[in-house]
Design goal:
Largest sheet: none
Structural class: mainly alpha
Strand content: under 5%
Order of helices and strands: HHHH
Number of domains: 1
Oligomer: single chain
Distance between the termini: 75 Å
Number of helices: 4
Keywords: Membrane, Transmembrane, Transmembrane helix
Radius of gyration: 20 Å
Amino acid sequence: MRNKLKFKYSKKLFSNTLTYKVSMTLNLAITAFCIILITLYIIGNYQNFQDDNQQWLLSVLSYVSIFNSLFSIVLTVETFIKIFTEKQKVKNIINMIALVGSAVFCIFCTGTANIISYISGGIN
Protein backbone atom coordinates (compact mmCIF):
# COMPACT_ATOMS: atom_id res chain seq x y z
CA MET A 1 0.00 0.00 0.00
CA ARG A 2 2.78 2.37 0.85
CA ASN A 3 4.56 1.82 -2.50
CA LYS A 4 1.40 2.72 -4.39
CA LEU A 5 1.13 6.01 -2.51
CA LYS A 6 4.73 6.86 -3.30
CA PHE A 7 4.17 6.09 -6.97
CA LYS A 8 1.04 8.24 -7.14
CA TYR A 9 2.79 11.04 -5.29
CA SER A 10 5.82 10.96 -7.58
CA LYS A 11 3.57 10.87 -10.66
CA LYS A 12 1.70 13.92 -9.40
CA LEU A 13 4.96 15.80 -8.87
CA PHE A 14 6.11 14.83 -12.34
CA SER A 15 2.91 16.10 -13.96
CA ASN A 16 3.23 19.62 -12.57
CA THR A 17 6.86 20.30 -13.34
CA LEU A 18 8.15 23.81 -13.13
CA THR A 19 9.97 23.54 -16.44
CA TYR A 20 6.75 22.74 -18.30
CA LYS A 21 4.99 25.74 -16.77
CA VAL A 22 7.92 28.05 -17.52
CA SER A 23 8.13 26.73 -21.09
CA MET A 24 4.42 27.35 -21.69
CA THR A 25 4.73 30.87 -20.26
CA LEU A 26 7.81 31.56 -22.40
CA ASN A 27 5.96 30.36 -25.49
CA LEU A 28 3.08 32.71 -24.72
CA ALA A 29 5.48 35.62 -24.16
CA ILE A 30 7.35 35.01 -27.42
CA THR A 31 4.06 34.77 -29.33
CA ALA A 32 3.01 38.10 -27.80
CA PHE A 33 6.40 39.54 -28.83
CA CYS A 34 5.72 38.43 -32.43
CA ILE A 35 2.38 40.23 -32.32
CA ILE A 36 4.10 43.36 -31.00
CA LEU A 37 6.67 43.21 -33.82
CA ILE A 38 3.90 42.89 -36.41
CA THR A 39 2.12 45.86 -34.86
CA LEU A 40 5.32 47.93 -34.91
CA TYR A 41 5.87 47.08 -38.57
CA ILE A 42 2.32 48.12 -39.48
CA ILE A 43 2.61 51.33 -37.46
CA GLY A 44 5.99 51.98 -39.09
CA ASN A 45 4.41 51.91 -42.53
CA TYR A 46 2.04 54.70 -41.55
CA GLN A 47 4.57 56.67 -39.50
CA ASN A 48 7.20 56.53 -42.26
CA PHE A 49 9.90 54.64 -40.37
CA GLN A 50 13.23 54.40 -42.16
CA ASP A 51 13.68 51.45 -44.49
CA ASP A 52 16.54 50.06 -42.41
CA ASN A 53 14.35 50.00 -39.31
CA GLN A 54 11.55 48.24 -41.19
CA GLN A 55 14.00 45.64 -42.52
CA TRP A 56 15.35 45.15 -39.00
CA LEU A 57 11.83 44.59 -37.65
CA LEU A 58 11.18 42.02 -40.38
CA SER A 59 14.42 40.15 -39.72
CA VAL A 60 13.83 40.08 -35.95
CA LEU A 61 10.27 38.88 -36.56
CA SER A 62 11.55 36.15 -38.86
CA TYR A 63 14.17 34.85 -36.40
CA VAL A 64 11.87 35.02 -33.38
CA SER A 65 9.10 33.27 -35.29
CA ILE A 66 11.41 30.46 -36.39
CA PHE A 67 12.56 29.94 -32.80
CA ASN A 68 9.03 30.03 -31.45
CA SER A 69 7.65 27.64 -34.06
CA LEU A 70 10.37 25.07 -33.26
CA PHE A 71 9.82 25.62 -29.54
CA SER A 72 6.07 25.16 -29.98
CA ILE A 73 6.56 21.93 -31.91
CA VAL A 74 8.78 20.50 -29.17
CA LEU A 75 6.25 21.49 -26.51
CA THR A 76 3.45 20.00 -28.60
CA VAL A 77 5.25 16.66 -28.65
CA GLU A 78 5.73 16.84 -24.88
CA THR A 79 2.07 17.70 -24.37
CA PHE A 80 1.03 14.85 -26.68
CA ILE A 81 3.00 12.45 -24.48
CA LYS A 82 1.44 13.97 -21.36
CA ILE A 83 -2.06 13.30 -22.74
CA PHE A 84 -1.43 9.55 -22.59
CA THR A 85 0.51 9.49 -19.33
CA GLU A 86 -1.60 11.76 -17.13
CA LYS A 87 -5.17 11.95 -15.93
CA GLN A 88 -5.75 15.64 -16.76
CA LYS A 89 -6.49 15.06 -20.42
CA VAL A 90 -8.72 18.10 -21.03
CA LYS A 91 -6.11 20.55 -19.77
CA ASN A 92 -3.40 18.94 -21.88
CA ILE A 93 -5.60 18.87 -24.98
CA ILE A 94 -6.32 22.59 -24.57
CA ASN A 95 -2.58 23.24 -24.14
CA MET A 96 -1.86 21.21 -27.27
CA ILE A 97 -4.42 23.17 -29.32
CA ALA A 98 -2.87 26.45 -28.13
CA LEU A 99 0.63 25.22 -29.00
CA VAL A 100 -0.38 24.08 -32.48
CA GLY A 101 -2.05 27.46 -33.03
CA SER A 102 1.09 29.23 -31.89
CA ALA A 103 3.27 27.12 -34.19
CA VAL A 104 1.01 27.75 -37.21
CA PHE A 105 0.88 31.49 -36.45
CA CYS A 106 4.67 31.72 -36.17
CA ILE A 107 5.23 29.74 -39.38
CA PHE A 108 2.84 32.15 -41.12
CA CYS A 109 4.75 35.12 -39.63
CA THR A 110 8.08 33.71 -40.82
CA GLY A 111 6.82 33.22 -44.36
CA THR A 112 5.14 36.60 -44.51
CA ALA A 113 8.17 38.45 -43.09
CA ASN A 114 10.50 36.76 -45.58
CA ILE A 115 8.20 37.50 -48.53
CA ILE A 116 7.82 41.16 -47.53
CA SER A 117 11.56 41.48 -46.99
CA TYR A 118 12.25 39.96 -50.41
CA ILE A 119 9.72 42.19 -52.17
CA SER A 120 10.92 45.35 -50.41
CA GLY A 121 14.49 44.59 -51.48
CA GLY A 122 13.56 45.61 -54.99
CA ILE A 123 15.14 44.58 -58.27
CA ASN A 124 18.91 44.35 -58.06
